[in-house]
Amino acid sequence: MTFLTSKWLYVLIALVIVLTVLYLAGRKTFHAEIVIPASPDKVWEVLLDHEGYQQWNPLLVPKEGKFAEGSKIVYQMTQPNGKQSEFPTTVISVEPQNLIKQYAGIPMILTADHEYRLVAVDGGTRVIQHEVDNGLAMLFWDSSWVQSSYEKVNEALKARVMELQAQ
């Protein structure tokens, strides 16, 4: 019985190692930055205006929820090919005029850690979108559109802030 038990222990350890390697191999990072000639509080106003997202955000529009730590937000995600799906997230942290950090997914399968970071710079605000996706599904999912989508979101955010400033 000891041989059988130790044999299964080795199989279990090997399985854990293989799954861990596959999980780490499925890691992808997306990073997009833009400088918006407006103060962080003006950019922050647009980011927190859920109802306004449908006017400017080409990728994610909140359907329900609010940006508050621990809250759930369900987004309507529209991929560049027109495919739509609901995308639920949990707000991990909110630091006014500085940071919105969200988490989504199923551990080991597919997770996304996304943040908007605002940094005051000469002439405005640097907006940084940074996301790390992990999981076995990343090995099979075509995420080639994500980086360019975040760049388009940043451009659309800039256009919306500039539009509101001009009013």
Task: Describe this entry's structure for a reader.
With 167 residues, the chain is α+β, with helices and mostly antiparallel strands. It has four helices and seven strands, in the order H-E-H-H-E-E-E-E-E-E-H. The chain has one domain: START domain (Alpha-D-Glucose-1,6-Bisphosphate, Chain A, domain 4, 2-Layer Sandwich), CATH 3.30.530. Strands 1-7-6-5-4-3-2 form a seven-stranded antiparallel β-sheet. The mean pLDDT is 92.
Short description:
The chain has helices spanning 2-25, 40-48, 53-56, 146-166, and strands at 28-36, 60-64, 72-78, 84-95, 99-106, 110-121, 124-134. By secondary structure, it is an alpha+beta fold.
Provide keyphrases for this structure.
167 residues, 7-stranded antiparallel β-sheet, 4 helices, alpha+beta, elongated, Alpha-D-Glucose-1,6-Bisphosphate, Chain A, domain 4
